[in-house]
């Protein structure tokens, strides 16, 4: 399944890079819709509707315009930080977003 997703993302990136307007002018953000609970006691493990910290913690991959290539930050990220960070990249105030901007993403 991951190979299918990788191929799809690769196709999108290739199309963007092939278009002069979008090439070197596009920020890509890949993040899951939610984290997963890690409770061993849940009837169905790896769910996201128990409102635990793990359900709100996600990975986020940022690459493209304005991001230093090859920099990796391995730290917990809250789902609500992704929207704030995208807003900051676009120059949009996200007054109603509760998460702090992941400022280390930007070059």
Write the layout of secondary structure elements.
Elements: H1 2-18, E1 27-30, H2 53-56, E2 57-58, E3 61-64, E4 77-78, H3 79-90
Antiparallel strand pairs: 1-3, 2-4
Structure in words:
The chain is 31% helix and 11% strand. The strands form 2 sheets. The protein has a two-stranded antiparallel sheet with strand order 1-3. It is of the alpha+beta class. The protein is globular, with a radius of gyration of 16 Å. It has helices at residues 2-18, 53-56, 79-90; strands at 27-30, 57-58, 61-64, 77-78.
- Report how far apart the termini are: 32 Å
Average pLDDT works out at 85
Q: What is the strand content?
A: 5-15%
Radius of gyration, CA atoms, in whole angstroms: 16 Å
Q: Pairing-aware structural class of the strands and helices?
A: alpha+beta
* Poorly predicted runs: none
* Strands side by side in the biggest sheet: 1-3
Estimate percent helicity: 25-40%
Q: Note the total helix count.
A: 3
| H/E series | HEHEEEH
Largest sheet: 2 strands, antiparallel
Shape: globular
- Tally the beta strands: 4
Short description:
With 107 residues, the chain is of the alpha+beta class. 31% of the residues lie in helices and 11% in strands. The protein has three helices and four strands.
Main features:
107 residues, alpha+beta, two-stranded antiparallel sheet, two-stranded antiparallel ribbon, 4 strands, 31% helix, 11% strand, globular
């Amino acid at each position: 399944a991951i190979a299918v997703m990788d191929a799809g993302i690769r196709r999108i990136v290739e199309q963007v890079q092939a278009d002069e307007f979008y090439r070197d002018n596009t920020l890509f953000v890949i993040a899951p819709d939610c984290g997963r609970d890690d409770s061993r006691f849940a009837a169905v493990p790896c769910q996201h509707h128990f409102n635990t910290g793990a359900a709100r913690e996600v990975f986020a991959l940022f690459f493209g315009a304005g991001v230093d290539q090859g920099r990796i930050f391995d730290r917990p990220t809250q789902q609500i930080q992704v929207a704030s960070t995208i807003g900051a990249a676009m120059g949009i105030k996200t007054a109603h977003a509760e998460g702090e901007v992941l400022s280390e993403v930007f070059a």
